[in-house]
Amino acid sequence: MQPLDTTDTRLLMALAKDPRRTVVALAQKLGLSRNTVQARMTQLEKKSVFLSFERRINPAALGYPLMAFIHVHVDQRKLTEVTHRLSEIPEVLEAYGLTGQADILVRVVSADAEDLFRINGKILGCDGVERCDTSLAMGELVPYRVEPLLERGPRS
Q1: Would the pLDDT of 1 be above 60?
Q2: What is the mean pLDDT of the chain?
Q3: Any residues with CB less than 8 A from the CB of 116 and at least 6 apart, and which?
Q4: CB–CB of 124/132 below 8 Å?
């Protein structure tokens, strides 16, 4: 990915503070032309700078107030198959391949403890999963953020 310049960073900071701002409002705020802002936004989209909108939807609003992190230990020969099976479980929000003790870290949501037990069973039922270690999320201490990185500026 090509590094961002100062104008890109300023634009992203303005969007981070108010994501609903229009191109015209961003241009006024940053002292840029509307065409410049529109062109920059298009380039940022092409560079895959923006994450999907669904990352901003709170699962609790959908009836899933309980969040957990599951460390999944798998037979490495079946990692691709396990990954595919995990993607078919709706309560799996994301999964990361890891180094260390576990092979995959899965973030899941559930309606309650009983529902979490059911989801854990689905994961354990995936061919190639050897074991799971589940930890309940007690609260979000540092929410997802990139603003401090934007304030620091692009790294060369």
Answers
A1: no
A2: 93
A3: 66, 68, 108, 110, 134, 136
A4: yes
| Each residue's pLDDT tens digit, 71-107 | 999 999 999 999 999 999 999 999 999 999 999 999 9
Answer yes or no: pTM beyond 0.90: no
Per DSSP, the three-state class of 37 is: helix
Q: Quickly count: other Cβ atoms within 10 Å of residue 78's Cβ.
A: 16
Secondary structure (3-state) at 7: helix
| Type of residue numbered 126 | C
- Which pair of structure tokens corresponds to residue 29? 């705020």
- The rounded distance, in Å, linking the Cα atoms of 119 and 111 is 10
Pairwise CA distance, residues 95 & 124, whole Å: 15
Among 84, 131, 91, 135, smallest CA distance to 111 is for 91
pLDDT tens readout for residues 21-34: 999 999 999 999 99
Radius of gyration in angstroms for the set of CA atoms belonging to the chain, rounded to a whole number: 20
Instruction: Find out whether 121 and 70 touch, Cβ atoms under 8 Å.
Output: no
